[in-house]
Design brief:
By secondary structure, this protein is of the alpha+beta class. Strand 8 and strand 9 form a beta hairpin. Helix 8 runs parallel beside helix 10.
């Protein structure tokens, strides 16, 4: 029987409260194809800065026990009509109405802050037809905007393709901090991801990126104990025309393949594959002892799917990006 759900605010500076929040977050991950972020990752990531603000909410049952939580991410320099939400409930306490109450509170908080379009994700394993996360989203008035494929590459990777860089181009890599000579161009490439990669019909605009934000991201990653290995493609004249990122969290054996983008005028030369192969070589020491690499891309993005499968990635899950208005 549904019971009473009491909603309270998450205070990041309250160590005891945050520890309870994080324990609930970890316990709510009952799927193997994805793993929760570390406590340090999550605490730093939920802290407000000049680019995003966050609202964290906690769900308690009528006895005061913490049964779930969620948060809103509010962009501050772009996409000012949008809010991104995520929520979770302990597996043993689902279907008691706590998720619904938590969602309603998150939607209300988004509307109070002037956000009219809310985006959220639901993930489910390949081959599953009755996915509770998807059913919850759709029953709550969310509509599927775009379907992403989640692939993983088990480590150690075997049979990587040879590194082939097309004539007229070169690839370079860095770990940690972008060289000053490239930071402005690198920010320009980062800014174009929404425009140049499949991103659905919700109406998202390009994110705000400049050199200052690149440096801010690097500082935050260092605070989270995340190590980035980044590779870029350059023309013979030295113009930066593409990039890819591998991110290595501290205190975890997971690896994340994040943004990969080649500018339209330079596609068709195999640069996406070259960037990823080069990054694998450059980060061999960081990959040692890790379990797997995760990557996500739109199910409609056939060129990137071919690149990932050439590297040995195999699909393990679907991720639905859902949208609704409030």
């Amino acid at each position: 029987m549904p019971g009473v759900t009491r909603i309270t605010s998450l205070e990041l500076g309250d160590d005891e409260q945050f520890d309870a929040f994080y324990a609930t977050y970890r316990a709510s991950y009952d799927r193997d194809f994805d793993q929760p972020y570390t406590a340090r990752d999550k605490r730093v990531g939920l802290r407000d800065d000049g680019y995003e603000s966050h609202v964290g909410l906690l769900a308690h049952d009528d006895g005061g026990a913490l049964v779930g939580a969620g948060w809103i991410t509010l962009p501050l320099r772009d996409n000012l009509d949008f809010a991104y939400i995520e929520l979770f409930v302990l597996p043993s306490r689902r279907r008691e109405g706590h998720g619904r109450a938590l969602l309603e509170a998150l939607l209300a908080a988004s509307a109070e802050r002037g956000r009219r379009t809310v985006l959220g994700e639901a993930a489910w394993p390949v081959g599953v037809t009755d996915a509770p996360a998807r059913e919850f989203a759709e029953a709550s008035g969310f509509e599927l905007d775009i379907l992403d494929a989640h692939r993983e590459l088990l480590l150690p990777a075997e049979g990587l393709p040879a590194l082939v860089v097309a004539p007229g181009y070169r690839v370079r890599s860095w770990r940690g901090t972008c060289p000053e000579e490239w930071v402005e161009e690198y920010a320009d490439v980062r800014r174009l991801l929404v425009q140049e990669a499949p991103s659905g019909d919700a109406g998202l605009e390009n994110e705000f990126w400049d050199a200052t934000r690149v440096r801010h991201e690097e500082e935050r990653w260092a605070e989270q104990r995340r190590t980035p290995q980044v590779s870029v493609a350059l023309t013979e004249a030295g113009a930066l025309v593409g990039h890819t990122q591998l991110l290595f969290p501290g205190d975890s054996d997971e690896v994340y393949q994040w943004d990969t983008l080649v500018l339209p005028a330079h596609r068709g030369h195999g640069l996406g594959l070259a960037l990823k192969v080069h990054t694998m070589h450059e980060s061999a020491d960081l990959l040692a002892g890790r379990r797997r690499i995760h990557t996500y891309n739109a199910a409609s993005n056939a060129p990137m799917i071919r690149v990932n499968e050439a590297l040995g990635f195999r699909q393990v899950a679907w991720v639905g990006e859902y949208v609704r208005t409030v």
